[in-house]
Specification:
Oligomer: single chain
Largest sheet: 12 strands, mixed
Strand content: 15-25%
Shape: globular
Number of strands: 25
Amino acid sequence: MALTDIEIAQKAEMKDIREIAAGLGITEDDIELYGRYKAKLSDSLEEKVADRPDGKLVLVTAINPTPAGEGKTTVTVGLGEAMWKLKQKAVIALREPSLGPCFGIKGGAAGGGYAQVVPMEDLNLHFTGDFHAITSANNLLAAMLDNHIQQGNELHIDTRQIVWKRCMDMNDRVLRNIVVGLGEKTDGFVREDHFVISVASEIMAILCLAEDMADLKERLGRIIVAYSLEGNPVTAADLKAVGAMAALLKDAMKPNLIQTLEHTPAIVHGGPFANIAHGCNSVRATRLAMKLSDITITEAGFGADLGAEKFLDIKCRKTEISPDAVVLVATIRALKYNGGVPKEDLNAENPEALQKGIVNLEKHIENLQLYGIPVVVALNAFVTDTDAEVNYVKEFVEAKGCDFALARVWEKGGEGGIELASRLLAVLEHKKPDFRLLYPDEMSLADKISVIAKKIYGADGVTYTAAAKKQLAKITALGYGELPVCMAKTQYSLSDDPTRLGRPSGFDIQIREVYLNAGAGFVVAVTGSIMTMPGLPKVPAAEGIDVDANGVISGLF
C-alpha cells in the first residue's frame, strides 16, 4: 500500500538546518534557530550578500486548479531537487500555508509524494509564528482604531466609513459581517464590522512587498483605516500604531529556511492567497534566494491568470526583478476535467475530452507569452496517462512555441524531475526573456482592469456595480490612480464564474467592489462572488486530522 504524503514526510531523516545553511555558505552567525530543522535568516546575511550578482529566476505557475490536482508546489520542489542532482546550486522560494485551507478543503502547501519540504507538519501548522504575528499586528490596529473612537475621536472618524477589517487565519464564514460594541457604553461604539482571512490582510501583502524595516514602517503608516467626517483618509500613522505593529512583525520579516526530502534548501516566507491577494512569497525571500543561488525557483498561487499575472504585474513592477523563464504545470487529468469529464472517470483514456480541455492550457500559454518570457510546459505525470495522451499534449505545446517536459517528481523526487530540469537549463541558456508589463502605471484604473479582463481572462468587457463605480472614482480622486490592480477572482475559471471551465468566451467580468491597499501599493478589484473570508465545506479536512499519544499527527495533506 502506497504511503500518504504525511507518512512519507514523517519517515524522512532530516538534516540539521545548520548543515543545510552551510551548503549555501551561510554560517551559524547568520541564522536564528527554531529547533533543529527550521531557522530564520538574519538581516546581517542580507547585508553580507548584497553585492553578489543575482542568479537566474524561474517562476512556476499552472493551469486553473481542478479537483483532479495539478501539483504546482510538488513540481517546484521536485525541480529544485533535480537541479542539485545536475550539480546546479538552486534554491526554491515558496509561500507559507494558511491554516484555513489546511483545515478546510485544499490541504497544506508542502508539495507531495517524494517532492516535499519538511518538517511538513510544522510548515502546515504554526511554523515559525509569522502568520500569528501578522494577525496580531492587523488586530492591534483594529483595536487602536476602535479605542480612538471610544476615547473621544479626535480624528473625527466617520464610523460609517471604517474600512479596516479584523482578521484570523481560519475559514469562518459567520465572521464576514458582524456587529461589535454591544453591551455597556464602556464596551465601545456599536457598529458593523468584518473579518478577512489573515492571508487577505493588507499586512500580509505589506510584509511580502517590504524591502526592509524602514520600508515596512513606511508602508504600515500609509494604511488607510477609515475616512473622517470631512472625507479625508485616516491612516495607521494618524493612530500612532506603526511602531507597535512593526515590533510585532520584527521577526516575521525574516525569511525562513527549511529543506526538501532530499536535503536541498527551501526559503519559505509569506503567504498571500492568489485569488484574493497578490499570491507571491516575500520580496526579501526571493531576492535573498537569488543572491545565494545560481537558480531560484519560485511559485505563484493558483492558475497563471491569478498568481502569475500578479507576480508579473505587481511584484515585478515593484521590485524590478523578472523571471528568466516560466514553468507552466498541467496534468492530463486536469485537462480532461476541463473537457467535461467527471472526476471519477478521469483515469480512462479520452482523446476527445483532452482535445476539448487543452484550450485552458492554450490560453495560459498565450497569456504568459504576452510578457515576453520563455515558457516550459511541465506535464505532471500520472500512472494512468497513456503514451497517446502525452504525445498529443507534447505536440500541441511545441506547436505553440513552448518547450515541453514530463515531471515524475511525486513518485521519484528529484530523479523524476531531471528531464524537466535539463530542459529548463537549456531554455535558460539559449532563450533570453524580453520582459514587458501588461499595462503602464499611467493607465487609468478602469483601463487596467479592462486590460486584465480582456487579455488575460478573455472577457468581452467589464461591468461595475454602482458601489464599485463610486469606489473607483474616489480612489482615483485621492491620487492613487497609477497603482497596479490586484484582481480578486475565482481560481477555478478564467471567468468570474467557477463553473465555466476550459477557455470560456462571451462573458463580462463583473466588479462588485474596489478597495485601496495604500500601504501595499495596489488597488483590489473584487469580482463575482469571491469572498475574502472563506467558509468551511460540508465535510472539512479538520474532521480527518488527529494526533496520537506519542504526538504523531495524521490526516494532514
